Amino acid sequence: MSPRKRATLTGFLAVLLWSGLAALTVATAPVPPFLLNALTFAIGGALGVAHLARTGGFGALRGIGWRVHAFGTAGLFGYHALYFTALRLAPAAEASLVCYLWPLFLVLLSGLLPGERLRAGHVAGALLALAGAGVVILGAAGGIGGAALPGLGIAFLAALVWAGYSVGSRRFGTVPVGAVAVFCLATAALSAVLHLAVEETRWPAGAGGWAAVVALGVGPVGLAFYFWDEGMKRGDIQLLGVASYAAPVISTAALIALGLAAPAPAIIVAAGLIAAGAALAARAGRRVRPAPSGG
């Protein structure tokens, strides 16, 4: 198997782990967003440090500039602070679906990378997926209550942040994946400071809540970042975009199966529109490939 294919498959694992992000986040209530960030990223960072210690990979982190650490920390901290806040302010299924516009934005932004260009299919896919988000937002205004609209707006911002972080990772292709451990620990520290400054401390409710926090830290807010970093830097970014479009459907299905969301027609329609629109954009993107060089 080629290194590119191996990296792409590694990125797929992150998508599978993220499918459980919404359900696990709901299970951590009433932990406030910054405290949840601090707890889960501390776990995720500790996993990375343990791996670096076992493999002797600390030396590879020497010489990494502060801009790289600032970029990685801003991406991880920004997205998850927004995501956790969105799921506290709006119903989980609706907020999660809006957050899952990020695969679409990923494909749109990747079309601007060297050797790629934006096509009509990208625009059509964007409109289709945005229609899905519109179904969620209109449902919030007329059904689940206008109080959810700020949460959905925050979810939209979260989608933009994660897409920008993912595509921007290409710029740092030579930075070792182990640097993600530093990003995680810096995110945990920053989140802890902000928690103490602006939030009331509320710990998980019982053993189930703590189990959800640990599961988040190990999976969607832990191993997934290392997998995703490898996929974004060395894998097929367009193909990973295609895989990511399954995440909103799987995530919504998990919420419904666990009784954390009602199987409302609007949610199902929105999930289908977002997935279909993003897949259409990805298909357009995969048609654009740099011409082979050489004779």
List keywords for this structure.
295 residues, mainly alpha, 13 helices, globular, disordered C terminus
Description:
The protein starts with a helix and ends in a 9-residue tail after the last helix. It has one domain (3-57, 66-286). It contains 13 helices and no strands. Helix content is 76%, strand content 0%. The protein is an all-alpha fold and 295 residues long. It is globular and about 50 Å long. The longest helix has 29 residues, at 206-234.
Write the layout of secondary structure elements.
Layout: H1 3-18, H2 21-27, H3 33-55, H4 66-89, H5 92-99, H6 102-110, H7 120-144, H8 149-168, H9 179-198, H10 206-234, H11 237-244, H12 246-257, H13 265-286
Helix pairs in contact: 1-10, 1-11, 2-10, 3-4, 3-9, 3-10, 4-5, 4-8, 4-9, 5-7, 5-8, 5-12, 6-7, 6-8, 6-11, 6-13, 7-13, 11-13, 12-13
Taken in chain order, the helices and strands follow as HHHHHHHHHHHHH
Strand content: under 5%
Count of runs of 4 or more consecutive helical residues: 13
Q: What's the number of domains? A: 1
Low-confidence runs = 288-295
What is the average of the pLDDT values? 83
Q: Distance N terminus to C terminus?
A: 26 Å
Which radius of gyration do the C-alpha atoms yield?
19 Å
Brief write-up:
76% of the residues lie in helices and 0% in strands. By secondary structure, it is mainly α.
